[in-house]
């Protein structure tokens, strides 16, 4: 039995949404103000790319036994209790 000052479910979510939106908007404005007062970070030079052998592997001709093989993605299910010894 609800009392006179009980908060209903819909009102609870409305209040929670308004409080959450207020916190998000306040956090964004504080973050924007903080970013305006800071100096931009120095640009970092990109790291050199690591050496790979991809070009060498692409030169090898593909055969019917190359990966993924003749049955790619094939799954087999066995439903016999005697299939695996215990």
Q: Which segments are poorly predicted (pLDDT under 50) over 5 or more consecutive residues?
A: none
User: Helix and strand string, N-terminal first?
Assistant: HH
Please tally the helical runs, counting DSSP H or I stretches of 4 or more residues: 2
Cα shape? flat
Beta content comes to: under 5%
- Arithmetic mean of pLDDT: 79
Q: What class would the helix/strand composition place it in?
A: mainly alpha
Distance between the termini: 61 Å
Helix content: 40-55%
Number of strands: 0
Radius of gyration from the CA trace? 31 Å
Mind summarizing the main beta sheet?
Answer: none
Task: Tell me about this structure.
41% of the residues lie in helices and 0% in strands. The relative contact order is 0.04. The chain is flat, with a radius of gyration of 31 Å. It has two helices and no strands. The model has no long low-confidence stretch (mean pLDDT 79). The two termini are 61 Å apart.
What's the SSE blueprint?
Blueprint: H1 9-37, H2 54-59
Summarize the structure.
With 86 residues, the protein is mainly α. 41% of the residues lie in helices and 0% in strands.
Structure characteristics:
86 residues; mainly alpha; 2 helices; 0% strand
